[in-house]
Amino acid sequence: MKDVFFVERDPYAPIRHQYPVSRVLHEEKSEYQEILVLESPHFGKLLILDGVVQLDERYEFMYHEFIAHVPLYAHPDPQEVLIIGGGDGGTLREVLKHESVKRAVLVDIDRRVIEVSKEFFPTLSSGFDDPRATVINEDGYKYIQECEGEFDVVIVDSTDPVGFAHVLTTEDFFRFVNRALKEEGIFTAQTESLHYHLEMVVRIQKTLKKVFPVVDLYTSVVPIYAGYWWTYSIASKKHPVREPSREVKVSTKIYSEQMHRYAFLPEDLYGRILEGKFSF
Ligand code: AG3
C-alpha cells in the first residue's frame, strides 16, 4: 500500500494527524464502536476506536506507565485495583507489575476491544492471563455504583469524554468512585491535552475538588495524542500524591521516582490554571 494515509477523526483537537498505512490488519463495527487495527511504518500497530488513535506499539508506554505508576506509587500498599476502560490491557500490564497487587479488576464495556487486543497486541494484553486479573464487560459507570470501600486505586483509562465515556467525568461518577475506594484510596483518570483542552481539564479538576480532599494534575508526553502534552487528573482521600511513597522497584522504560515528581506541574502554575489566570 503505497502512499495510503489514515486521517484521524479526533472530535476535540484543532489539528488532524495522518499516519502512513502499510497494512490494514482488522476492521469491524462492534456493538459500541468502530475498531480498526492498522500498521504504520514508524509507529508499529495502531489501535483506533471510532476514528481516534488510542495507542501505538512504539510509544504506548509513555502513557501506560504514567496512568498506572503515579497512583500506584503514591499509594503505600495498593492491593485491590479497579481499571475502567483500558480494554487493550496496557494499563493492566503496568498495574500487575506491582507485587502488592492481589486483585486487578478491569471493567470495559466492549469485550471486542479486549479480544482484538489479545489477537493483535500481545505485548499489551499479556496481563489478561494473570490469575490476579478479572475482566468484566459492563458499563463502568454502572459497575462502580455497586462497589463500596473495595479498592485502593481506581484508574479510568477511557476514550475521550464524548458519547458513552462522558459520564466518567461527572460529579456523580466521582462520588461513586469515592465510595468505591478504601479510606486511603487514590483515583486517576486520563483527562486530555493540557493546552488544547484546558477548559475541560479545569472543569474536571474543579468537579473532583467537590468530592476529594486532595486533587492534583500531572502530565506526560504522548507522541500520538493531538497536543502531545497529555494530562492525568489524580484525586486522593488521604495520601499526598506528588511523591512516590515507596521505593520504585517495578521495571519501566520511563517512569521513575524523578519522573513521578517531574510529572506534576509546579504548584504556582497549577494554581494559576485552576484560578483561570493562565491561558495558552
Ligand atoms: N485512552 C485514552 C485515549 C485518548 C486519546 N484521545 C485523543 N487522542 N484525542 C487510551 C487507551 C490506551 N489504553
Provide an overview of this structure:
The chain is α/β, with parallel strands linked by helices and 280 residues long. The protein folds into 2 domains: 5-55, Roll (Spermidine Synthase, Chain: A, domain 2); 61-274, Vaccinia Virus protein VP39 (Rossmann fold, 3-Layer(aba) Sandwich). Helices cover 27% and strands 29% of the residues. The protein has 9 helices and 13 strands. A 7-stranded mixed beta sheet has the order 9-8-7-10-11-13-12, sandwiched between helices. A 4-stranded antiparallel beta sheet has the order 3-4-5-6, with helices on one face. The site of 1-{4-[(3-aminopropyl)amino]butyl}guanidine has 15 residues, from strand 6 and helix 2.
Brief rundown of the structure:
The protein is α/β, with parallel strands linked by helices.
Which helices and strands occur, and which strands form pairs?
Layout: E1 5-7, E2 18-20, E3 23-29, E4 34-40, E5 44-49, E6 52-56, H1 61-74, E7 80-85, H2 90-95, E8 103-107, H3 111-120, H4 122-125, E9 133-136, H5 140-144, E10 151-157, H6 171-180, E11 181-193, H7 198-209, E12 214-221, E13 229-236, H8 257-263, H9 267-274
Parallel strand pairs: 7-8, 7-10, 8-9, 10-11
Antiparallel strand pairs: 1-2, 3-4, 4-5, 5-6, 11-13, 12-13
1-{4-[(3-aminopropyl)amino]butyl}guanidine is lined by residues 10, 13, 52, 54-55, 86, 88, 90-91, 157, 159-160, 190, 225-226.
Enumerate the spans where pLDDT stays under 50 for 5 or more consecutive residues: none
Order of helices and strands: EEEEEEHEHEHHEHEHEHEEHH
User: Terminal Cα separation, in Å?
Assistant: 40 Å
Percent strand: 25-35%
Q: Which percent range fits the helix content?
A: 25-40%
Structural class: alpha/beta
Q: Classify the fold: give the CATH topology of the largest domain.
A: Rossmann fold
Count every beta strand, where a strand is a DSSP E run of 2 or more residues: 13
Small molecules bound in the structure, each named once: 1-{4-[(3-aminopropyl)amino]butyl}guanidine
The second-level CATH architecture of the largest domain is: 3-Layer(aba) Sandwich
Specify the number of helices: 9
Strand order of the largest sheet: 9-8-7-10-11-13-12
Shape estimate: globular
Biggest beta sheet summary: 7 strands, mixed
The CATH superfamily of the largest domain turns out to be: Vaccinia Virus protein VP39
* Structural domain count: 2
Average pLDDT confidence is: 96
Rounded Rg: 18 Å
CATH C-level category of the largest domain: Alpha Beta
